[in-house]
Amino acid sequence: MGEGVQPSYDELAALVAAQAVELARARGEIAALRDEVAVLKRRLGSNSGNSSMPPSADRFSKPAPKSLRGKTGRRQGKQPGAPGANLSVVENPDTIVNHVPSSCAGCGCRLRQAGDAGIVRRQVVDLPPVRPSVTEHRLRRLRCRGCGHVTTAAGPAEATAAVCYGPNVTALAVYLLTYQHIPVVRTAALLADVLGLPVSTGWVGGVLAPVASRLDEFAGCVVRQLRAAPVAHFDETGIRVEGKRWWLHTACTSTLTAYLPHRLRGGEAMDEFGILRGFRGVIVHDGWLSYQDYGRIHARCNAHHLRELVAASETHPEHTWPLIAIKTLEELNTAAHAARDAGQAEIPARIRDPLISRFLRTINLGLLLHPPERGRKQSKTRNLLVRLRDYQDQVLRFARDLRVPFTNNQAERDLRMIKAQLKISGGWRTQHGAHTWLRVRSYISTVRKNRVHVITAIRDAITGNPWLPTNTTMT
Fold this sequence. Notes:
Layout (H helix, E strand, L loop, with lengths): L8 H37 L95 E3 L6 E3 L14 H12 L5 H12 L5 H5 L2 H6 L2 H12 L3 E11 L2 E9 L4 E6 L4 H7 L8 E4 L11 E4 L1 H14 L5 H21 L7 H21 L10 H11 L1 H4 L1 H4 L8 H17 L5 H19 L4 H9 L13
Parallel strand pairs: 3-6, 6-7
Antiparallel strand pairs: 1-2, 3-4, 4-5
Helix pairs in contact: 2-16, 8-9, 8-11, 9-10, 10-11
């Protein structure tokens, strides 16, 4: 176009059209970059406070400690009626030592002939010097006068060799290995230093297998009672067996614990576990889709939802719906606690129904603000909202059935110390070792939940009489 020549109408129209195309392309690119930035910011900002990451995986900044639970109206500390633990005066002490003053603290006179004015009691609870006790079992041999055959008396079950450690020592070693998570070498050192028992690491490493072999009846009893439980918690976490990634599955209640290590995470492992197939109660889980293939009544863990809602509020600070959803869930949880404490069968409808309606309206508002995007992967926020909408009955089960807790924390607690064991040992070298360790751990966990003395229960298992849960523990 020459200098001083005015562009024609058609040329201007073509230029405008080209600029409109370029502007639309730029807007699309800007929108894509914004979404990418949001995804990256959310990924970099993910921590144990706004996602399912464990605290050990917090990378760039640790979140300030903050509970996701709403206020329940309860006071801090010990609750009324909860059992306490404190030292109390013993009426019949093992040893009494009298201390008599020799002179008056007022005038200095000697107190040989002074009258008795009472006593002040001070009791010291301590351990006596610890030393092993050796019991010799002499198995008498008698010769029959009739046929001359020599018969040897039967010894107790624990006397398996000329010299061996008894069930109390073995029970303590099992307890240190599987409940206190002390490694084999340090367990051997502790037994030597504290008890004066120079046990070998080989002996310590071999104490679990005989105990686990005596727990078959216990394991079967736990599985049967879990199948019949009205509410049960299920979860899974990654572990390492033989240097490979496996999955540890747990099924539990407040009084029962069962574990299964398996190569797979999904349905094949759950079928082998043998609890979910035919389960008629409420299945509490964290939303892993394989659980949806079992049972009819499900409840989802709201601790996960609260963390994801926190992440959504951080990713989209201009939106208020995540905070409203969080507050509504917390208020429903508070109402559930209040109803249980008052002995009510359910949350009063006048309290529950408006809160549920507000929660559902909030989710629908969020879906309007985060519409689906064709041909693109949906954002985590959109996926969260879709889950909360599609599985609203499972999300809000705790508000309609007071037997159901707000979270799946029971299962997470039963898995938490297994993760601690993995940090200490790194995993199990053999499949047999994994099954053995977890069978004993299941026994100890169940025993503790039922307030049974752990070392006594382990000793009973060693001597062939393991503790068994009764039907009354099925809660």
